[in-house]
Structure formats: C-alpha cells, structure tokens
Amino acid sequence: MAGSEGGRSEEAESGEAEPGVDSGEWKQKVELAQEKAKQSQTKLDQALVNYEDKKAQAKLWQAKQSQVQAQLWQAKQSQTQLQQEFVPLISAVLMFILMLVLLLRQGNKISLPLTGQLIIVLPEECIAELEALHQQMKSDQRSIWFIRRIMLRSILESLWAFFILINFENLWLPRNKGRTK
Asked: Which H or E run includes 25?
C-alpha cells in the first residue's frame, strides 16, 4: 500500500496531467495559445485603430469637400456679380465708340465749332481746358496738323477718362445694398 500511496502522491503533486502528456509539453501549449491570443488581440487593436483612422479621414474628406463646394459657390457668385458689373462698362465703351463714329461721319455737316460739338459729350471744365490748349498752340504758331493731332489726342483722353475709366473704377466700389433699383 505504501507503494501505491507513494505513486498517487507524485501524481497529485505534479497536477492533473493527462495520460500520455508531459507537463513541459502542456506548458508549451498553454504559452503558445497565450501567444496566439496576444497576437489576435494586437491584430484586433490595429484593426480598430485603422478603422478609426479611416473614419477620421472620411470625416476630414467630407469637411474638405463641403469647403470646396462653398468656395465654388462663392466663386460663381462673384463671377455673376462681376458679369453684372461689366455690363455698364461695356455699354459705356459702346457709347464712346458710337459717339466717335457719329462725330467722324458728320465731319463739316454741322456748322458748330469743335467746342460746340464737344459740349454735348464732355463737361464744361474739360472743354474750357481744350479751348485754352488750342489757343495756346495757335499763339505758339504751331502747324495745323500738329494742333489737330494734339487736340484729337486730348479729346480722346477726355472721352476715355469720363466715359470708360470712371465706370471701370466704379466696379470696385461697394454696392449700395440699402437701395433697390
């Protein structure tokens, strides 16, 4: 009996081992299973981080997309506003060209002097300056072609300043939002 009791005590001390399996093998299998569990947990953690990163990237992409759409809408609005502002400028240029064509076609048909013809188009101060320039060049005894060339240039500059340049500069003035047209 002592031998049989001694055998039982050794099995009890070593733990409950399966028949035919060594305790060293059992520990290796447990460690291997724990290692696989750790690897699976690491993979799950990485997958969760990747998922959260992709979710954050998707939110960022949506925010960028909405920002781009807002910028496109603002660009379309400014383009429309700019097109509406260029209409008066284009009409002023066309009126300028039309007046020049009419003045050139009439030639000497109108018996009014040059200042009389220009008073229809230009302000009085400008006409007075042109008349003073004309008188000064006559008193300096310049040739008639030189006087005509300088007068034509001065008239064109005045027409440009009063009909085109002013309208062009007014494009950048703020719109009067209080009044309705």
From this structure: helix 23-106
